[in-house]
């Protein structure tokens, strides 16, 4: 038998052969209805032959089958077609599947190695795949080079307490929080570079936004300022949205996601407001008074985003709250030349980016103020000694954009096997 994927079989007439797994099974006295799934779709199969009914009667959900039969239109079937089974081969008779209806999110995370085959997770993973492909396509169409950096690094780029320590022979190393420090070195040769790779943050957080291991889409560009950087970020997000809306209609239907909620960010210009303006909006529109200098928390970001239906750039955060490499605004040394892109529907920060500090003395001063060992950053500081130039870059948290695009409650469903402060298995 030449097997077709179910998506192909649905377009055929006459006899077809398909294979897959039992998604649903309904056993009547003389007939058994099997909804078979594969990676492409589902199709209802009806077993009427008494010999085959006897075999099918023993089957449980997720049993793997090979089926041959005549396909025909059937309005009552889930996808509008049905196969009358003439041949049935049981590849593997599954045991009683532990996942049923109305299971708790924590139970489904415990069983992720099995739940990942569900239609919901399959739809999310397909959209995720489209997003990864779109990121690569966007950057390559803009003349970027893909560049990879080490995962094991001697020092961090963000806060020291959020670093995972690793024993490296007789030395202490860390898992990379970002490719940025190495990317800045490579930028002097390649000028426009990007990468999608894992990043690790030992954040003691149990929120729906945070993972300790996530995929980071980062870019670094020579001769670029903050406004140009935000232009790239907006173009990238619109490119991703256009791609998934075109290619993943079926997956959005499975998820019950209203893509009209994504359309404003595709069609409208993203507003750009400063951190100071954001605080004024919070006080005026939401009755929340936030002391200047405090970083925006989840609640404040959510309240800001209740005022918008698109992604919003918030710029010029307080310098003291920022990473060491974010430079002061020459017109206002209290703020940094940086931005966060906040997503609607409560998803929070999607992208963080900044210009990079070119001043060697300022970098050393900032590192010391944060208690870092200057020797761990010698390679980075060297880049400022030999033809330093203006440059900028940003990082996009892929799981966060997957969460927003798919309309998920938690970022934990935006990746195959999530890692958090309390979850490291399966």
Give an overview of the whole structure:
This protein is an alpha+beta fold. The protein has two domains: 87 residues, OB fold (Dihydrolipoamide Acetyltransferase, E2P), CATH 2.40.50.140; 306 residues, 2-Layer Sandwich (BirA Bifunctional Protein, domain 2), CATH 3.30.930. Helix content is 31%, strand content 27%. The strands form four sheets. An eight-stranded mixed sheet has the order 6-10-11-18-17-16-13-12. A five-stranded mixed barrel has the order 1-2-3-5-4. Strand 14 and strand 15 form a beta hairpin. The relative contact order is 0.11. The mean pLDDT is 95.
CATH domain class name of the largest domain: Alpha Beta
- C-alpha end-to-end distance: 37 Å
The proportion of strand residues reads 25-35%
By CATH, the superfamily of the largest domain comes out as Bira Bifunctional Protein, Domain 2
Number of strands: 18
At CATH level 2, the architecture of the largest domain is 2-Layer Sandwich
The overall pLDDT average reads 95
Number of separate structural domains:
2
Specify the number of helices: 14
- The secondary-structure class comes to alpha+beta
Q: Which segments are poorly predicted (pLDDT under 50) over 5 or more consecutive residues?
A: none
Under CATH, the topology of the largest domain can be stated as: BirA Bifunctional Protein, domain 2
- Major sheet description: 8 strands, mixed
Strand order of the largest sheet: 6-10-11-18-17-16-13-12
Shape: elongated
C-alpha Rg (nearest Å) = 26 Å
Q: What percentage of residues falls in helices of 4 or more residues? A: 25-40%
